[in-house]
Amino acid sequence: NAGVMQNPRHLVRRRGQEARLRCSPMKGHSHVYWYRQLPEEGLKFMVYLQKENIIDESGMPKERFSAEFPKEGPSILRIQQVVRGDSAAYFCASSPTARGETEAFFGQGTRLTVV
Amino acid sequence: RKEVEQDPGPFNVPEGATVAFNCTYSNSASQSFFWYRQDCRKEPKLLMSVYSSGNEDGRFTAQLNRASQYISLLIRDSKLSDSATYLCVVKSNYQLIWGAGTKLIIKP
Fold first, then answer.
1. Which one of A15, A64, A111, B78 has the fewest CB atoms closer than 10 angstroms to its CB?
2. What is the 3-state secondary structure (H, E, C) of chain B?
């Protein structure tokens, strides 16, 4: 049973480009959480999704950021028109139960660098 | 004031020593408390939950003080492999609030 898979592991984008981060949850998990970690800081909750639904997006910036978790395929975190301040590690976690963050398994993260 | 505060360290500790970290939280209504471990440039991994009565897992002991709103982690007989960043996490209103972590370096 593969763990939570995130890709790419490293992503470099120029300012103004789009970044698409993918997260495939563990088999049998239908709940996905996205977090952002800036250097020397803790993780910050961004969004919680269940298949085809956004349950809680209270941590998402109002502009340029969006997330989806379609019926088929991975969850996608999309950042449009990236800026230097978007450079961070983005972690995805999945759980089999609703609001199961503390039972969630994390992916290895995508490190986004905006140049 | 941050919702969850930790001393960033680093704590430089000789192998075999005992080391303790504290973490304070601001929301008195917080429901659950956890310690995670994060190795350099890796994902965080749950180390242990923290219960009101205190709990122990091998060399690790976690305690909660609700009156003073802090939790602690004690590591006995530290190993080189304990070197990592230890993240304090508090669950409030269905969300996990993460501390920035305390970096621990165990020296031979």
1. A15
2. CCCEEECCCCEEEECCCCEEEEEEECCCCCCEEEEEEECCCCCEEEEEEECCCCEEECCEEEEEECCCCEEEEEECCCCHHHCEEEEEEEEECCEEEECCCEEEEEEC
Nearest Cα of chain B lies from the Cα of A8 at a distance, in angstroms, of 14
A55: left (phi over 0), alpha (psi -120 to 50) or beta: alpha
pLDDT tens, A14-47? Answer: 999 999 999 999 998 999 999 999 988 889 999 9
Tally the C-alpha atoms within 13 A of residue A100's C-alpha that lie toward its C-beta.
15
Element (H, E) at B38: strand B32-38
> What's the rounded Cα separation, in Å, for the pair A112 and A89?
6
For tokens 């088929």, name the residue. Answer: A72
Q: Do B95 and A109 touch (CB under 8 A)?
A: no
Q: Taking a C-beta distance cutoff of 8 angstroms, is the pair A22, A9 a contact?
A: no
Which residues are within 8 A (CB) of A8 and not within 5 positions of it... i.e. 6 or more apart? A21, A22, A110
Smallest CA–CA distance from A55 into chain B, residue: B94
At A80-98, the pLDDT tens digits run 999 999 999 999 999 988 8
Q: Are B63 and B22 in contact (CB under 8 A)?
A: no
Give the span between the Cα atoms of A83 and B46, in whole angstroms: 32
